[in-house]
Amino acid sequence: MDYSQFLFMPQEIGLLFVFLLVFIYDTFMPARMGKHLPMFTTILTALYTVYAFFPCPDMFGTAFGGMYESNPATWVMKNILNIGVLIVMLQAVKWTNDDFVSVRRGEFYELILLTLFGMFLMISARHFLLFVIGLETASLPIAALAAFEKRYYESHEAAAKYIFTAVFSSAIFLLGISFVYGMSGSLYFQEIATSIMGIKSPLLILAIAFVIAGVGYKLSLVPFHQWTADVYQGAPTAVTSYLSVISKGAAAFAFMVILVQVFGALYAQVWEWMLYAIIILTITIGNLFAMRQRNLKRFLAYSSISQAGYIMLGVIAASQVGMTSMIYYVLVYIFSNLAAFGVIAVIERATGKVTMDDYNGLFRTNPWLAFTMMLAMFSLGGIPPFAGFFSKFFIFVGACQTGSVAIYVLVFIALVNTIISLYYYLLVVKAMFLRQDDCVIPYIDSHWTEELALTICVMGIIAVGVASGIYAFLNQVTGTIAPMFTMVG
Amino acid sequence: MMEIFSNILIYFVIVPVLTLLGLALCNNKGIKAIRTVAVVGATALVVLAIYLVYLFLQARGSGDTSEMILRSDVLWYAPFNVKLALGVDGISVVMILLSAFIVFAGVFASWKMNPLPKQFFMWFFLLSTGVFGFFISIDLFTMFMFYEVALIPMYLLIGVWGSGSKNYSAMKLTLMLMGGSAFLMLGLIGIYFHSAADGNLTMNVLEIAKNNAIPHNWQLWLFPLTFVGFGVLGAMFPFHTWSPDGHASAPTAVSMLHAGVLMKLGGYGCFRVAIYLMPFAANELAWIFLTLTGISIVYGAFSACVQTDLKYINAYSSVSHCGMVLFAILMFNTTAMTGAVLQMLSHGLMTALFFALIGMIYGRTHTRDIRDMGGMMHIMPYLGVGYVLAGLASLGLPGLSGFVAEMTIFVGSFEHTDVFRRVLTIAATCSIVITAVYILRVVGKLLFGEVQDEHHRQLTDATWEERLSTATLIVSVAIIGCFPNFFVNIISDSFLPVVKALGTMI
User: Fold this and answer.
1) What 3-state class would DSSP assign to B137?
2) Residue B464 CB neighbour total at 10 angstroms
3) At a CB cut-off of 8 Å and minimum separation 6, what does B99 contact?
4) Residue B505 has pLDDT above 60, yes or no
């Protein structure tokens, strides 16, 4: 075996290195040093994030006989996930040192790093075997994470629901793959793409449907979304935020690569219309359910379902602009959603309150938390000058570039839904700023790591939109994989 | 990149942003510092705006006939060819002037704002940033962005500092206007993808108009989207329902800025984007929107007659007057369009004056219901005289701004020889009479009627900052009324490209 192939995966190697260090620290350090583990991991992850940001020379290419590919786009996607994970870890530092959680804090970080590794494999996989390994590595440990607050009944429920859905959808996904394998005799993306070209068999349509269902559950696209609200509500907030942005982002990246690279030739015939229906359902149902939620974690669960629908608008564009806009959307979404979850986490840790009514009058006592939450809501709702406006606009432009009237109609439906979503995002703002309450949440002295995490998010929300260089850079990066889109037809 | 800072226009955005940041640095309790920063910011805007008028007149005087002056482009989002493209023509210049004066008057009208004055002024200046940014940009993307920047502060301004059923009104206003901008966004994306026949897509209004490449069948879809999108903000029937509730609940300065300036964004946008870029569809579909705006004019005026809340009366009268702006724009000739811009100016100042006075009266009597008030002329003569002047301007007394504007509009509209437009014009002209009815009804009851509440006799007249605020507006109304030619000269050239684009179609 040619070991120099591993040089193509510096990000994965670095991540495993961090994981091993954390594991060694957790296992061999005396118990009294345990309380420093969260900080140790976070600093290591921060260093690793910076390291991963600088591409190694000759790191782009394929390895392991074409099963693994590293290109500028995968490199950027992984970096974006790294930033998100870093923010999640910063938010969790204080929480993992809580009395009930602290005995297991090592596992929290180890599982997060491992699932991230799985997501990296998903993004880089060019062979379904590797992809499934990545998918499973990224899914199963999350059930353990969801059950992290062992003392709560909801946490168990969340884990059980998650694992059942995960296993079931994996099975469906594998069935889809087996159909594809039966027809093409290969599991390599490229080989499948060439051998299914021109085939119009119902089996293939079924296979595509199964693949969409299998990945769709990770993205919580309707109708594969049923687990989302309960899991988001029951899981600890740090895990929920990880689940809602990182896991979703990674799945979106991988999803686009599979659909375009493997099934690109069947775009207009098959999956454009499947995705079309799914997007309408996802955005609309996510929005309609979000309106009625009083628990903020459930609220954000439905909001993130509808956001996933917007992300899919980049996929249905099946073009370079669509891909750029999708990566950009995920980046913005990471900052916005993590800001919202960050505020929820701080308040939940200090007071245990998570419903919208508890937030009444929050602005009077905790102006900065309220301000951050407001920015997050505005950004999620697509209000300029915050980043969410730009990402929405660009993803709409990307979708409309296909030029078909049907897509214009789709974008129109999405736009109408933006207004609905604005309504419920404003409900949170209304609670914090407009309402008064006798039992307002008192002033919360948040930990500096939480403040740092929120500051990063706020800066992201404000800067990512206005600084146009980020989008231009992403566009340049996706330009290197543009040939992939020539197959779309 | 840096040369954009040598363009005076960018400072119309920078100054409010700096004011906003300056306010953020103020102490929550330091009301004096907050007022100082706000006044400095507003004054700087007025000075800049007057200087801009001077620059504009100088440029035109020296024979510069380019469509937009003070042009500068900075590439912002290269993949979409989105630029920060600045430039003004006569219409934007007078709109900027109007906005600056209303922001100035608004700061003084909210002198005693309570609670949270700092946050109030911060949102207020964010709103102004959006307004000025909209008027200085000629790139569809930045225009749209600033447009939305101007909308969202309204939610908090009404929700936190408003009165009455403020939660409901704030949500209704925000969602309806954002709904309009959803139409608009789709329209703009459609325009963008058909902006050039040769594939060099652009968002620059001037270039799109020059290319004139939008296929006719697309225009027929995109024109209604953009016109309705902007028309919602221009309170076009049947999308006007946010306006009465919103204005009634908003705090004084916000009503002033919103009715005075923000609603003009709608008219300006309809003119600059919908009609200018899609002349074919504008011609084809004008009859639909003429009918709708005609209904706005008459319906708004009638509704104002039966209201008893001062702010509702004025809000419905705004629906009527803003309908007149859109109505005149749709007449597609220079006279009517000149009238439309004059009406924007006139209505902006007059309605701001109305809302300022209503706010001041409400601050004293704590009621806005005209049935509970009377005899205010004796109790607070300064405010009373101001109210009469605003009312007379509104019903079109010669010498004040309303007369010039409405006269020009109706003369211009009647220039058309077809029956449809003439009938509509005649119907719209009736609104002048109806306006007189509701204005005189309020003036008679509120100012000269019997004193309804003995406590009202102890009320005091305007304080100095209130006098300053209203005097600024009254003088402006009179200046437009007496010297309309000054403004007509500034704006007249700006219609030529549009009328030319429309003319090739007819």
Assistant:
1) strand
2) 9
3) B45, B49, B128, B131, B132, B135, B260, B261
4) no
Contacting residues of B for A412, CB less than 8 Å apart: 182, 186
Whether B111 contacts chain A with CB within 8 A: no
Instruction: Pick B79's closest partner by Cβ from A378, A423, A472.
Output: A472
CB atoms within 10 A of CB B369: 13
pLDDT digits (tens, 9 = 90+) for B252-311: 888 888 888 888 888 899 988 998 888 888 888 888 999 999 999 999 999 988 888 888
Rounded to 5 degrees, what are φ and ψ at B407? -55, -50
Backbone phi, psi, residue A197, to 5°: -60, 130
With contact defined as beta carbons under 8 Å apart, do A216 and A224 qualify?
Answer: yes
Question: What kind and span of H or E run contains B494?
Answer: none
State how far Cα B48 lies from the chain centre.
19
Half-sphere exposure of A173 (CA within 13 A, CB side): 23
Q: Which DSSP state fits A445?
A: -
Q: Which residues of A touch B148 (CB under 8 A)?
A: 383-384, 389
What burial class does residue A212 get, using C-beta atoms within 10 Å of its C-beta: 0-12 exposed, 13-18 middle, 19+ buried?
buried
In this structure, chain B runs to a length of 506
pTM (two decimals): 0.93
> CA B475 to CA B14: how far, in whole Å?
28
* Percentage of chain B lying above the pLDDT 90 cut: 15
CB within 8 Å of A207: residues ≥ 6 apart: A176, A177, A179, A180, A183
Residues of B in contact with A397 (CB under 8 A): 80, 189, 192
Amino acid identity, position B234: G
Whether the CB-CB separation of B332 and B286 falls below 8 Å is answered with yes
Taking the C-alpha atoms of residue A393 and residue A397, their distance in angstroms, rounded to an integer, is 6
Banded pLDDT at B504 (limits 50, 70, 90): low
How high is the ipTM of this complex?
Answer: 0.91
Interface test with A, best of B4, B75, B82, B172 (most A CBs within 10 A): B82
| All residues at 6 or more sequence positions from B400 whose CB lies less than 8 Å from its CB, including other chains | B389, B392, B393, B477, B478, B480, B481
CA distance B354 to B474: 10
Q: Where are the domains of chain B?
A: 2-503
End-to-end C-alpha distance for chain B, whole angstroms:
42
Q: CB–CB of A343/A353 below 8 Å? A: no
- Closest listed residue to residue B159, CA positions, set B86, B256, B249: B249
Contacts of A211 (CB under 8 A, 6+ apart): A173, A176, A177, A180, A258, A263
Query: What is the tens place of the pLDDT at every residue in A55-105?
Result: 887 888 888 888 999 989 999 999 999 999 999 999 999 888 887 888 888
Bridge partners (DSSP) listed for residue B82: B77
Report CB contact under 8 Å: B175, A400: no
Decide if pLDDT at A212 tops 70.
yes
Q: Which two tokens stand for residue A162?
A: 């998650």
Task: Give counts: helices (H), strands (E), chain B.
Answer: 22, 2
Question: CA-to-CA distance for A265 and A308, rounded, in angstroms?
Answer: 24
Largest CA distance in chain B: 74
- Alpha-carbon gap, residue A171 to A202, rounded angstroms: 20
| Shortest CA gap B77–chain A (Å) | 6
> How many Å is the maximal CA-CA distance in chain A?
69
The closest of B112, B56, B14 to B362, measured between CA atoms, is: B112
Q: Are A276 and A133 in contact (CB under 8 A)?
A: no
Which of the four pLDDT bands, split at 50, 70 and 90, describes residue B191?
very high
**Tokens 């990063």, located at residue:** A456
φ, ψ of residue A46 to 5 degrees: the values are: -60, -45
Q: Which tens digit of pLDDT belongs to each residue from A103-140? A: 888 889 999 999 999 999 999 999 999 999 999 999 88
